[in-house]
Each structure stands twice: as C-alpha cells, then as structure tokens.
Amino acid sequence: MTTLDDHSDAGGETNAPVWAVFGDLMAGLLGAFVLILVCVVAMQFDLTAKLKAEAQQHQAELQRRQALEQALAGPLAAGRVTLADGRIGISGNVLFKLNSAQLQAEGQQLLKSLAGPLSVYLAERNEVLMVSGFTDDLQVHGNNRQFADNWELSAQRALTVTRSLIEAGVSPSSVFAAAFGAEQPVASNADDQGRARNRRVEIAPTPRRVAGKDVKGG
Q1: pLDDT 10s digits, 129-188
Q2: What does the pLDDT look like over 102-139, one tens digit per residue?
Q3: Looking at the record, which segments are called Disordered (predicted)?
Q4: Any idea which fold 80-215 has?
Q5: How far apart are CA 125 and CA 36, in angstroms?
Q6: End-to-end distance of the chain based on CA atoms, in angstroms?
Q7: Model-level pTM greater than 0.85?
Q8: What is the three-state SS of 53-84?
Q9: What is the pLDDT of residue 29?
Q10: What element of type H or E holds 179?
C-alpha cells in the first residue's frame, strides 16, 4: 500500500536533479557574464590608453610645428620660405640657376638667415634636419653636362644646401642630405609654372636615430 509520504519522497527525488542542473546552468551563465565583463573592461582600458597616446602624440606634433613656425617667423613673413606639414620649402629658383648646383647670392643669404633659428630649434629637441633635393621631369641639359641626370642634380643641390647650413652654424651632426630627383612632384610638370614649383629644396626635422632606434623629439 502506497502512502502519502511515499509519494512525497518520490516527488522530492524526482525534482532534486532538475534544481541541480538549473543551478549549474546559472553558475555557468554567471561565469560567462563575468568573463565578458572582464573582457569589455580590458578593451575599454586598452582603447582609453590608445586614445590618450594618440592625443599626446598629436599635441607633441602640434607643439613641434608651432615651435618651428616661431623659429622661422621672419623668413615666413617675408615669403622667402614655406612651411607645410613640418617641411620647410625653398624654391629652386631662389637657390640655383637652371641645371646648376651653385648657390646664387640670394639663396646663400637665405640659408644664412635660416641657420640661426634652425640651430636654436634643434638645440631644444633630439632631432636632425633632412635636406632633400627635388627637380622637374625635364632631362638635364647644358653645354658642360656636369650632371648625368636629375638624380645627380638633386643630390648635389641637397649637398650644397647642407654644406651651406653647416658653414652658417648648423652642427654637422644635425643635418644630412637626401635626393629624390623628379620622383615626388608637388605640381604638374606639364607647364613652366608647375615645373618651377617642383624644382625645390625641402628641409624637414626628423627624429634622431640613436643606438639603432628612433628617439622622439620634444
């Protein structure tokens, strides 16, 4: 004969595994939620750190450009040089005659006026100056054929400007020359005006390399 107590015991034994499974399920869900929360928090911290680093880098770059503008206030106001994205641009017509790497008097005076402000700027930062020579796309011509091609012409012009800056007081360890020939025009070479813009020299501060790695200025 089955009693009420027997039914109660049987029901209890039947329900017990269900609650155990439910408890395990809830524990698993809670663990997954905690894991997701930890991942989200970690990603948030990582994103915050990246945004902070980018903001600091942007601020440092802004300060660097402002310092360069202040150092070159005189030549910039006189329209003798341009400053774009931290690069100082000088028209090749100011510095050199066509197909020549010999400085003109106006170019010599301009470089002398730049040497002082640039030396002050470099003294406050761990940077060096890259002097880059550029030409138009016309082949080098002339009676003496001094230069084999535009690469050689742009290299010699960059070296001439580099040496002039050193003679005017810029430290030899703080400046170097680079040649780009006609490969990086800033205007079309289809007309005289565009070619004149492409014949240029640029002076750009760049981080100094120390012990095989870049050292940021500022």
Answers
A1: 999 999 999 988 655 568 989 999 999 999 999 999 999 999 999 999 999 999 999 999
A2: 999 999 999 999 999 899 889 888 899 999 999 999 98
A3: 186-218
A4: 60s Ribosomal Protein L30; Chain: A; (3.30.1330)
A5: 45
A6: 94
A7: no
A8: HHHHHHHHHHHHHHHHHHHCHHHHHCCCCEEE
A9: 77
A10: strand 175-179
User: Around Cβ 179, how many Cβ atoms within 10 Å?
Assistant: 20
Contact criterion met (CB below 8 Å) for 20 and 12: no
User: Which amino acid, one-letter code, is at 60?
Assistant: A
In the block, tokens 């997954």 appear at 32
- Give the residue-averaged pLDDT of 10-18: 55
Buried b (16+ CB within 10 A) or exposed e, 136-158: beeebeeeeeebeebbbbbbbbb
* Strand, coil or helix: 130: strand
Distance of CA 132 to the CA centre of its chain: 16
Question: Concatenated DSSP letters for 161-197?
Answer: HHHHHHHTT--GGGEEEEE-TTSS-SS-TTSHHHHHH
* CB atoms near residue 65 (< 10 Å): 15
Q: What are phi and psi of 129, to 5 degrees?
A: -100, 130
